[in-house]
C-alpha cells in the first residue's frame, strides 16, 4: 500500500458543514471530532476532488477525453462499484496536525485537567461565527427570517488528508490527481461567496508532487509506469 | 465512458475569467459584525478578519450589493426579482426558486489592504419632532472604517458550454460598472451617506480550458495573491477590461439634486470624538478624507447625511402639517420602521455626506444663566468649537430621490428653498443663530429610461439675483404638491 498526503491550507474562513445547527445559537455548525477539532470528511473530499477532475476532463478534445475519463473512473471508481470497478484511491479525513490533536486529547482525558479544557473550548478557539442577512429588493429592508449564522473555521489553518492506494497509482492517475488538486480552490459552504478559499497540494513522503505531473495532464503520450 | 460517468449534473466549464480590482471607500463605512453583545464598546462593531485587525468585506456582501444593483439597473427600483433576469444569469437562482442554477460568479472575501485600517467613531441621536429635542434612549454610536480604506477585489466567472456568453458578460460588465462609477454602497446607512466607494483599477485574465496551454496557466494561476499584477495591463474602465461595449439600458428612475451653499452663520454639529483634557467641551463633527494631493488621510469638517436627512424630515413634516396633508408622503420619502405593526420600508431619499471647504474653527465660551437669580449658573461654564465660514466656504449637498413623483419633487424643492434662504438651520444651536446656509448654485436632473433627461439649474449671483432655468416647470412641481392628490 502507498500513502500520499493532500495538504489543504485555508486562505479564507471556511465552513466544512455538518448539515445541522445548534438550536438558538447557530444555523450551520461545522464538522468536528469528539475533542472539538474541526475536520473535513474524506467522503466529501473525495467528491470534491472527483468533481474537479471531471470538470477538467469534460472539456478535453474528443480524442483524449475518453482516455482520461477511463483514468478518472479507475482512480475514483463508479457509483455502485463492484470489487472489479472500485476506485483505486481511498481518501481519509482532512484533519489538523496529529501531534496537536494528540496533545490536546491527553489534556482532555485527565480527570481534573489544570486548564479546565472542554471540547467546546477547542472548537471555539479554532472557529468564529459569521452572520448574514438578505435584503428585500422591493422594500430595501432585511428580508424576514433571512438572518443566518454559520460557524467558520478561521483561516491559515492547515489540514492534511491521507490518500491510500492498495497498488501504486500510475503516472496518468497521479497527473489527473495533481491537476484536480491544483484546481480545487473552493470547498465547503458559501464557497462561491468568499468562504472556503483553499490552497491544495499533493505530497508523497514529504515531497510535493508538482508541475511536471501537471503538465502531462490531457496528453496521450504518457507511458504507464 | 461518457460524460455521465458519475451520473450527476455536471457543468461543462469551458472558460474562466478572473477579474481583480481595488475598491476604495469614499465615505465612512460600517461593515457590521452583527454581534450585539453588551460587552461591545459601541452599539455596532466592525467585522474583522479572524486572525488579524484587517477589516473584512465578505464575498456575500459584495454579491448582494452587486446583484441588487444589476436588478435595479435592468428593471428599475422596487421591483421583485424574476427568474429570467440578468441578475439570475450571473448570480444564480433567486431564493424562492427551488431549481435555480448555481452562481456563475465566484466572489472572494476582501480583507483591507492596510493591516490596521483607520477607524472612526460616529454617534447619532433621534430627534423628537414634537419637542425638537433628543429622544430618550435613541442615542447610538457606530464604529466606522475611514474613507480611503482599500480592499482588493477578486471575481472569477465560470463560463459553461450551454451559457449565453454574451448575456453573461453583459451582466458582469453592468454589475461591475456600478462599483466603478461609485453607484453601489456597502454596509449600513447607505442612504444616509455611509458606505460610498469606487473601484480605481481593474485587471482581467481569460482562460480557455479547452486549450492545453491556457488550462495549464489557469491551474498555475496565483490565486492566493491579493495584489494587482505588475506585468498585467491595468484598466480604469471595466468595459475596456472586458473588451465589450454596451448600450445604455438604465431603467432606474431617479431625481438628482446637487446644490452648493456657503455658510450664512457658524455651524455646529456635535461630535463624540476629540475629548481630552484640553479640547473644548463640544467640537464640530469631523471625518477622515484622503488629501487630493498626497492621498494622506486628514480630518475635515463635514455635514453628515444623518443630520441633514433629520432636518429635512422634520421640515417636511411641518410643511405637510401646515398644508393639512397626509403624513403618508413622509413615510414614502424617508422610510418607516414600525415595531408594533412590523412595517418597514427603506428611505427613497438618498442623502449624502458633504465635506465643508475653507472654514476656520472658533472656540466660544458660554455660560448658563440661572433663571431664578439672573446670575451665572454655578459650574455651567462650557466652550464650543464651532465652524465659521467666509465667502470662500463651500458646501455641496447631494440628494437623490428614487422613483420620484411630481408632488414629491415639489416637496423637495420647497425644502431646497428653505435651505437656500437660510430659513432651515442644520446642526445644533439653531436657537442661537447657528447652522444657516445660503444657496449659490443648484443643479437638478431627472434620470429615467425615456429619451429626455430634463435638467434644471438655479443660480444666485453676488448681488443676490436669482436665475432659474425653467421656473415654470419647477413651479408646476410645487403646485402639484400643494394642490395635488396628496392633499
TrEMBL record, chain A:
The keyword DNA repair does not apply. GO terms for biological process: defense response to virus. It holds the Pfam family RAMPs. Keywords: Antiviral defense. The keyword Secreted does not apply. InterPro entries: CRISPR_Csm3_endoribonuclease, RAMP_III_fam. Residues 7-198 form the CRISPR type III-associated protein domain. CDD domains: RAMP_I_III (cd09726). This is RAMP superfamily protein. It comes from Oxynema aestuarii AP17.
From TrEMBL, chain B:
The keyword Metal-binding does not apply. The keyword Amino-acid biosynthesis does not apply. It comes from the Bacteria. Residues 25-197, 260-437 form the CRISPR type III-associated protein domain. GO terms for biological process: defense response to virus. Keywords: Antiviral defense. This is CRISPR type III-associated protein domain-containing protein. The lineage of its organism: Bacteria, Bacillati, Cyanobacteriota, Cyanophyceae, Oscillatoriophycideae.
Amino acid at each position: 500500500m502507498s500513502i500520499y498526503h493532500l495538504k489543504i491550507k485555508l486562505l479564507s474562513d471556511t465552513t466544512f458543514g455538518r448539515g445541522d445547527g445548534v438550536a438558538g445559537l447557530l444555523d450551520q455548525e461545522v464538522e468536528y471530532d469528539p475533542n472539538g477539532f474541526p475536520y473535513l470528511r474524506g467522503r466529501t473530499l473525495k467528491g470534491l476532488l472527483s468533481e474537479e477532475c471531471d470538470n477538467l476532463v469534460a472539456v478535453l478534445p474528443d480524442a483524449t477525453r475518453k482516455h482520461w475519463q477511463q483514468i478518472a473512473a479507475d482512480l475514483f471508481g463508479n457509483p455502485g462499484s463492484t470489487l472489479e470497478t472500485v476506485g483505486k484511491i481511498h481518501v481519509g479525513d482532512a484533519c489538523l496536525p496529529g501531534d496537536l490533536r494528540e496533545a490536546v486529547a491527553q489534556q482532555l482525558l485527565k480527570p481534573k485537567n489544570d486548564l479546565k479544557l472542554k471540547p467546546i473550548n477547542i472548537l471555539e478557539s479554532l472557529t468564529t461565527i459569521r452572520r448574514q442577512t438578505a435584503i428585500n429588493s422591493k422594500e430595501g429592508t432585511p428580508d424576514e427570517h433571512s438572518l443566518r449564522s454559520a460557524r467558520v473555521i478561521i483561516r491559515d489553518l492547515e489540514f492534511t488528508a491521507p490518500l491510500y492506494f492498495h497498488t501504486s497509482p500510475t503516472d496518468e492517475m497521479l497527473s489527473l490527481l495533481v491537476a484536480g488538486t491544483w484546481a480545487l480552490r473552493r470547498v465547503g459552504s458559501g464557497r462561491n461567496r468568499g468562504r472556503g478559499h483553499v490552497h491544495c497540494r499533493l505530497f508523497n513522503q514529504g515531497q510535493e508532487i508538482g508541475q511536471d505531473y501537471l503538465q502531462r495532464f490531457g496528453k496521450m503520450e504518457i507511458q504507464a509506469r | 465512458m461518457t460524460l455521465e460517468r458519475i451520473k450527476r449534473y455536471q457543468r461543462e466549464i469551458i472558460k474562466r475569467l478572473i477579474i481583480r480590482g481595488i475598491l476604495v471607500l469614499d465615505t465612512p463605512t460600517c461593515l457590521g459584525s452583527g454581534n450585539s453583545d453588551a460587552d461591545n464598546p459601541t452599539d455596532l462593531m466592525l467585522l474583522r478578519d479572524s486572525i488579524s485587525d484587517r477589516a473584512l468585506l465578505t464575498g456575500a456582501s459584495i454579491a448582494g450589493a452587486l446583484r441588487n444593483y444589476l436588478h435595479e439597473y435592468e428593471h428599475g427600483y422596487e421591483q421583485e426579482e424574476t427568474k429570467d433576469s440578468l441578475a439570475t444569469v450571473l448570480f444564480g437562482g433567486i431564493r424562492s426558486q427551488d431549481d435555480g442554477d448555481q452562481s456563475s460568479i465566484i466572489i472572494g472575501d476582501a480583507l483591507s489592504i492596510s493591516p490596521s485600517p483607520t477607524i472612526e467613531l460616529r454617534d447619532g441621536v433621534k430627534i423628537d419632532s414634537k419637542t425638537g429635542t433628543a429622544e430618550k434612549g435613541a442615542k447610538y454610536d457606530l464604529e466606522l472604517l475611514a474613507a480611503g480604506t482599500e480592499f482588493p477585489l477578486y471575481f472569477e466567472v465560470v463560463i459553461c458550454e450551454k451559457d449565453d456568453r454574451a448575456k453573461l458578460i453583459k451582466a458582469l460588465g453592468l454589475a461591475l460598472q456600478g462599483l466603478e462609477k461609485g453607484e453601489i454602497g456597502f454596509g449600513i446607512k447607505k442612504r444616509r451617506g455611509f458606505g460610498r466607494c469606487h473601484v480605481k483599477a481593474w485587471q482581467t485574465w481569460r482562460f480557455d480550458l479547452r486549450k492545453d496551454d491556457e488550462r495549464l496557466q489557469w491551474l498555475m494561476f496565483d490565486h492566493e495573491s491579493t495584489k494587482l499584477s505588475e506585468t498585467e495591463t491595468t484598466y480604469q474602465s471595466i468595459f475596456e477590461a472586458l473588451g465589450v461595449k454596451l448600450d445604455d439600458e438604465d431603467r432606474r428612475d431617479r431625481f438628482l439634486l446637487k446644490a452648493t451653499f456657503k455658510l450664512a452663520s457658524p455651524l455646529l454639529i456635535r461630535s463624540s470624538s476629540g475629548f481630552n483634557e484640553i479640547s473644548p467641551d463640544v467640537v464640530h463633527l469631523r471625518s477622515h478624507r484622503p488629501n487630493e494631493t498626497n492621498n494622506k488621510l486628514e480630518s475635515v469638517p463635514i455635514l453628515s447625511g444623518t443630520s441633514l436627512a433629520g432636518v429635512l424630515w422634520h421640515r417636511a413634516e411641518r410643511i405637510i402639517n401646515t398644508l393639512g396633508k397626509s403624513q403618508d408622503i413622509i413615510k414614502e420619502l424617508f422610510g418607516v420602521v414600525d415595531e408594533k405593526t412590523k412595517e418597514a420600508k427603506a428611505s427613497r431619499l438618498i442623502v449624502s455626506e458633504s465635506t465643508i471647504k475653507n472654514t476656520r474653527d472658533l472656540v466660544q465660551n458660554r455660560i448658563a444663566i440661572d433663571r431664578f437669580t439672573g446670575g451665572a449658573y454655578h459650574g455651567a461654564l462650557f466652550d464650543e468649537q464651532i465652524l465659521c465660514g467666509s465667502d470662500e466656504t463651500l458646501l455641496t449637498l447631494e440628494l437623490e430621490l428614487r422613483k420620484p413623483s411630481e408632488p414629491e419633487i415639489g416637496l423637495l424643492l420647497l425644502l431646497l428653498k428653505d435651505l437656500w434662504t437660510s430659513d432651515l438651520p442644520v446642526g445644533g444651536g439653531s436657537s442661537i443663530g447657528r447652522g444657516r446656509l445660503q444657496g449659490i448654485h443648484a443643479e437638478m436632473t431627472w434620470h429615467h429610461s425615456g429619451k429626455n433627461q430634463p435638467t434644471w439649474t438655479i443660480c444666485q449671483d453676488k448681488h443676490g439675483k436669482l436665475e432659474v432655468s425653467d421656473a415654470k416647470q419647477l413651479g408646476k412641481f410645487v403646485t402639484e404638491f400643494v394642490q395635488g392628490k396628496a392633499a
